[in-house]
Amino acid sequence: MTTLKPPPFVEKFQYKNCKQINDPITRKRLYETPDGERIPSVTTILSATKDMTHLIEWKKRVGEAKAQQITTEAAGVGTGLHANLERFLCNEQRQPGNNPIHIKANAMADVIIEHGLKYVDEVWAMEQSLYYKGLYSGTTDLVCVYKGNPCIADYKQTNRPKKAEWVEDYYLQLMAYIMAHNNTYGTDMREGHIFMVSRGDDGMKPGGEVYQQFDLLPKDFNKYQDMWLDRVEEYYKLTK
Q1: Strand order across the beta sheet in which 120-132 lies
Q2: What CA–CA distance (Å, rounded) separates 64 from 59?
Q3: Mean pLDDT across the stretch 163-175?
Q4: Does the domain made of 19-238 have the CATH classification 3.90.320?
Q5: Domain ranges of the chain
Q6: What residues contact 210, with CB distance under 8 A and at least 6 apart?
Q7: How buried is residue 167: exposed, middle or buried, by Cβ count under 10 Å (0-12/13-18/19+)?
Q8: pTM to 2 decimal places
Q9: Which of 6, 42, 99, 131 is the most exposed place for a label (fewest CB within 10 A)?
Q10: What's the CA gap between 239 and 49, in Å, rounded?
Q11: Cα diameter, the chain
C-alpha cells in the first residue's frame, strides 16, 4: 500500500449540490439543480448520442450472460477503486478487503495514487455535482489543482489499456464538467485529466496493473468544447 500523504483540502468555493432523480416517463437520470431546474446528466447525453455498434457487436460475440458477468465485475472493481481513492484523499484508513474484487481494487488504487494523485497540489471537491444552467449536470470525481493548474479529474478502470482514439467520450465528459464549473462558479478552468488503470495480464490478481493518463490541455480546449456542445445539441434534437 502506498506511503504517500494526501494533498490538502482547500475550501475554494461553497459548492452547490444537485439532487439526482429519474424521469418518471423516460426512466433516464436527471438532476434537479438548486434553482429547481430538471436537466439531463452528462452520461445520459453521451449515451443517447453515442454510436453503440461496437458495444452491440461485443455483446453478440461474447454472449449476453458473459457480457453481464464482465459488466458486473467491472462495476464492483470500479466501486472499490473509487472508495479506496476517496479514503486516501480524506486521510482515512483504506479497506483492502478480503475478496478478489476488493483486493484488486486496492492494488489498482495504489497505481492511480502513485502516478496521478501524487501530482495533485490541493483538492477543492470530491464526488461533486456540477451543472450548466439550462443544459446539463453531472458528478465529477475530483475538482483539484494538478501541477499548479485548476482542473477536473476523473478516475477510470478498464480490463485492458486503451488507445487514445477509443476514449473520446472521456474527453467530452471532462469538458462538460469544466464548462459547468466555469459557468456556475465564474472560473476559467482550461484543463482536465483522466487517471486510468487497467488490470493487466494478471487479471484479478494484484500486480501487473498498467497506468495511463489522458490529458485535456488548453491547446485542445476549443476543439472539445465544440464537440461537446454538438453532442448536447444533438441530444436535445433527439428528445424534442
Answers
A1: 120-132, 136-146, 149-158, 192-198, 210-216
A2: 6
A3: 93
A4: yes
A5: 19-238
A6: 111, 161, 197, 198, 200
A7: middle
A8: 0.90
A9: 99
A10: 11
A11: 52
